[in-house]
């Protein structure tokens, strides 16, 4: 561990690619590496947060879990940007649909990330910061989706600090503002990227329907997000 820049990641410099795909679930990272990457090498198992580097169609790419919530992805993405010279992080996660025309297994691209988090407090900004994705990554993701024949919805998502909210009206309020889906990490990732001068994108597969019946199992979440994964790899 003495040679590693952080206690949260077992990699030494040079073991992580400039491009990192970041699912929340470390087992999904393992699945992606073993399914899509050529000669994947495991570079960290610290706290069971698996990370791998390999190649995809000749391009070096890493995949690493980011955990649940903004504090978790905030730590991992900060360290990747600042300690491992990563240029871009693409979050590939799950989300709950807020709109009626967003259905199970649909792919959502988070152009912006609303949030109820106080994560931006650290920057002491004189107003409200609007966390957004890198436009080049958004544009390329839409192009790749079209090439692959995968419909995507592009717009605002909500990054919430609270999974079980005591206020039952919160989803109705975000839904009324046209927010597409709710997840728990994108806003922190986008803020970290902005502060570091790096690039970030959040793509989500709908795993739950908040206003209709339907949800995916844990196994379906882990293994069934192929369309999103393939878009992210091809960007």
Automatic annotation (TrEMBL):
NCBIfam families reported for this sequence: deoD, PRK05819.1
Active site: 208 (proton donor)
Catalytic activity: a purine 2'-deoxy-D-ribonucleoside + phosphate = a purine nucleobase + 2-deoxy-alpha-D-ribose 1-phosphate; uridine + phosphate = alpha-D-ribose 1-phosphate + uracil; a purine D-ribonucleoside + phosphate = a purine nucleobase + alpha-D-ribose 1-phosphate
Keyword Transferase tagged: yes
Domain of life: Bacteria
Record-annotated Nucleoside phosphorylase domain positions: 20-222
GO molecular function: purine-nucleoside phosphorylase activity; uridine phosphorylase activity
Cited Pfam families: PNP_UDP_1
UniProt entry tagged with the keyword Transferase: yes
Role noted for this protein: Catalyzes the reversible phosphorolytic breakdown of the N-glycosidic bond in the beta-(deoxy)ribonucleoside molecules, with the formation of the corresponding free purine bases and pentose-1-phosphate.
Residue sites binding phosphate per the record: 24, 28, 47, 91-94
EC number: 2.4.2.1
GO cellular component labels: cytosol
Annotated protein name in UniProt: Purine nucleoside phosphorylase DeoD-type
Gene of this entry: deoD
Binding-site residues for a purine D-ribonucleoside, renumbered to this chain: 8, 183-185, 207-208
GO biological process terms on file: purine nucleoside metabolic process; uridine catabolic process
Record-stated family: Belongs to the PNP/UDP phosphorylase family.
Annotated keywords: Glycosyltransferase, Transferase
Quaternary assembly: Homohexamer; trimer of homodimers.
Annotated site (Important for catalytic activity): 221
Signal peptide: none
